[in-house]
UniProtKB/TrEMBL annotation:
Keyword check for Signal: yes
Any Pfam family: FGE-sulfatase
Keyword Secreted: no
Signal peptide positions (record): 1-19
Domain Sulfatase-modifying factor enzyme-like: 25-287
Record keywords: Signal
InterPro entries recorded: CTDL_fold, Galactose-bd-like_sf, Sulfatase_Mod_Factor_Kinase, SUMF_dom, SUMF_sf
Protein name, as recorded: Sulfatase-modifying factor enzyme-like domain-containing protein
Length: 539
């Protein structure tokens, strides 16, 4: 009987994955070194990482397919992968080989949980005789620090505006196309990058520039599951750079952000339960070399050569994605008795964009276009709102929008009678506060102010001096969040959230209010905190 070789199989089956052989992953050589970790408490400590090898790419569908075919392993199949108006709120019917992100065999494998990823590394280690495992948080951080990515991801980085050259993140193209393809919006809660990486969701591995070690997609694309056990957000890395383990560990870290998030999420420490199966989570492997600095590993010839061919095809598709205009700058607002004038700096691009001016009613979060095709950098709103409004300007190339400009508010405000109820969005000053809608709340509680670390000021008129009970309805993420309460700029008390993630009415906050007009402020001291309303009643 004639022997069928792997080359013959490739000719017969094209790009289909054949499970007969293990795919040896291309590996980068990472030298030993150290880096400094800066904590939220302004403390610092050093971490030393021994030499190791890191996979150049996130693990692909092709590689995981061979593991499944060889072992019959039953991977989890309850992944929420479909995108709709609520993003991943559809049925949990996805698996590694049945999800909307399986665009090719050379895309990262997603809809994978921690145990699935570990099972793969154990299988690959047995097959190759090499010690493969998930990367540790220390290894991820070290390669980001030393590989040249910091200049792209830090706010003051020299290449910050070129982040789309090295990472697939929430960007202009994703913002524009997600609504059209899936009915999903990148709301104000997302920090969308001011560039285009040419992808809407998950990208084929290796489509963006590598770091100095030859590693691709360490930032963005798939969110990478780490080997480290999660205990709390304040866990320190091991000083010797080894994996943090724990008895009966129920949750693990993930790092690197994803195509669904902006750069602010990249350095965040996300935690995933052991059995969490997410549509944006994948993994990357490393090889433990016992501290020896080995040469880079080329990887299986079929995999490397076929990936190169598929990347050429994908880059042709990228080349067809048209450019997007730059974000509008220099927006100014001038208020008159019966009109509001806005101006902005015109683009220096060879092709001059058209512009839209958007007005947001902060009391009901209604937005409307004041001008649909302004080109001279100046607009007059002849019917301004009697209360506070927020304006922004968007540039367009055809139907392709820029990011919104920085917003600018009118000076109008409401004076709230006390005792009484104050809506969170009815502030007199709050330029850094986003006013948003919650689709899960009843109509009267739907609009809220996303406070975070910002300050919201409210003009109040107290009818009678005395002791009052302040009862704010706030949203928090589960951990305790602190808020300072100020009167005319002076701190008079504070309160903290408690209980599980969600909305809660904080009780037992007592304040002393003198009679007359004053400024009452809420100063957020923690991120991810929102205010729906606050009820102020006489004790």
């Amino acid at each position: 009987m004639k022997k069928i070789t792997l080359a013959t199989l490739v000719l017969l089956y094209g790009n289909r994955v054949w499970a007969a052989d293990v795919i040896e992953p291309p590996m980068a050589s990472i030298p030993a070194g150290s880096f400094t970790v800066q904590t939220e408490n302004d403390e610092s400590y050093d971490v030393t990482v021994p030499a190791f090898q890191m996979a150049k790419y996130e693990l692909t569908v092709a590689e995981y397919s061979r593991f499944i075919s060889d072992t019959g392993y039953e991977s989890a199949n309850n992944c929420s992968h479909r995108i709709d108006s609520g993003w991943f709120s559809g049925p949990s019917d996805g698996s590694w080989d049945n999800n909307i992100y399986r665009f090719s065999e050379f895309h990262p494998v997603v809809c994978i949980n921690y145990d699935n990823a570990v099972a793969y590394t154990q299988w690959l280690s047995r097959k190759t005789g090499k010690d493969y495992r998930l990367l540790s948080e220390a290894q991820w951080q070290y390669v980001v620090e030393s590989g040249g990515l910091q200049e792209y991801i830090k706010a003051e980085g020299k290449k910050r505006e070129q982040i789309c050259d090295v990472a697939n993140l929430a960007d202009l193209h994703a913002q524009n196309m997600s609504e059209k393809l899936y009915g999903a919006s990148y709301t104000a809660a997302y920090n969308v990058e001011n560039c285009s990486d040419k992808e809407v969701t998950l990208a084929m591995v290796g489509m963006y520039k590598a770091d100095k070690y030859g590693v691709h997609d360490l930032v963005g694309n798939a969110n990478e599951i780490m080997a480290d056990c999660y205990v709390s957000d304040t866990d320190k890395l091991k000083s010797e750079g080894v994996t943090k383990t724990g008895k009966e560990c129920k949750a693990f870290f993930s790092k690197g952000g994803a195509w669904h998030w902006g750069i602010q999420n990249v350095l965040e420490r996300s935690q995933k339960s052991r059995d969490f199966l997410g549509a944006i989570e994948g993994f990357r492997i490393v090889r433990d070399t016992a501290g020896q600095q080995l040469e880079s590993q080329e990887g299986s010839t079929w995999f490397v050569n076929t990936l190169k061919k598929e990347q050429v095809k994908a880059r042709r598709v990228h080349a067809q994605v048209a450019n997007y205009p730059k974000q509008v700058t220099g927006v100014k607002l001038t208020e008159f008795k019966e009109k509001v004038e806005l101006s902005w700096q015109l683009s220096n691009d060879e092709i001059q964009p058209t512009y839209q001016v958007i007005r947001q009613d902060l009391l009901n979060n209604h937005k409307e276009v004041i001008v649909g095709s302004g080109i001279n950098g100046r607009v007059t709103d002849l019917n301004p709102l009697p209360h506070k409004a927020r304006y922004s300007v968007v540039a367009y190339y055809g139907d392709r929008p820029s990011l919104h400009s920085e917003t600018i508010d009118t000076s109008a405000y409401i004076t709230h009678a006390i005792p009484g109820k104050i809506e969170g969005e009815a502030f007199s000053q709050g330029t850094d506060i986003e006013v948003m809608n919650s689709v899960q709340e009843v109509k009267e509680d739907r609009v809220f102010a996303s406070l975070g670390l910002a300050k919201a000021q409210y003009k109040i008129d107290v009818s009678t001096a005395g002791q009052y009970a302040l009862q704010p309805r706030v949203y928090h993420t589960g951990s305790s969040k602190r808020v300072e309460v100020k009167l005319n700029g002076r701190v008079i008390t504070s309160f903290s959230t408690s209980s599980e993630q969600g909305w809660q009415v904080v009780q037992d906050v007592h304040i002393n209010l003198p009679k007359g007009e004053h400024t009452l402020s809420l100063q957020g001291l923690e991120a991810r905190l929102s205010v729906n309303w606050m009820d102020i009643r006489r004790l």
